[in-house]
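Fold it.
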Amino acid sequence: MEIIGYFASLIIGVSLGLIGGGGSILTVPVLVYLFRVEPVIATAYSLFIVGSSSLVGAIPKYKQGLVNLKTAFIFGIPAIAAVYATRKFIVPNIPKEVFSIGDFVITKSILLMVLFAILMVFASISMIKDKKNKVENETREQKFNYPMILIEGAVVGILTGLVGAGGGFLIIPALVIFSKLPMKQAVGTSLLIIAAKSLIGFTGDLSNYTMDWKLLLTVTGLAIVGIFIGDALSKKIHGNKLKKGFGWFVLIMGIYIIIKELFFPGGGSH
């Protein structure tokens, strides 16, 4: 299982390098089902892995002028504050048994995994859908819809904090719609936002859990190697076809997790 896990860690990076996102959605299932990490801690590890790999991915984008720092700052502040608060105060205080329906008990682990899987389903739909953005490379005058950016930033932050996913699929459309960024710039900017909020969010966990740094750094290292492979491949392969295929894969994974956690709990990591 561990060997498959290490291979999967590489794939997380490849997907980030190829399609500029999506990798984070695989990190938690890989940690939970392949490395047998407890789900709550897996969401913490995921923040570190996703944050570090996104930071590495953001550097070449920044050099190409595809990172809009002003937007990253405006969107990033509420997101970072929300992630940190969620990891530091909300997640540790979710009770071990959240609620029960008859004999069926929804535990904290099941709740987080199901929330995560629902997010996967939404992410996959946004990957599968054909986007008709023909005007994506026009440079439009940038206008900020401040209230919406602040709300969206905070919502993405809370979600990231709860399930440990980067939320690129939520951030990129928000940047295009509310900040009027061209698509390519939105992708680069979202990597920087993901990196900042994930890594700062992770610091909220340091006092709550004991970290397995060996596993954490190994998986992160492999994901970063994957980014470079993905980046090299992206020059040869068309991203849209890949995105669709990856979207279907994420959809199947999301449905699998929902069924597994709700109908066959106790298997694997819990």
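Residues 39-63 form the longest helix (25 residues).
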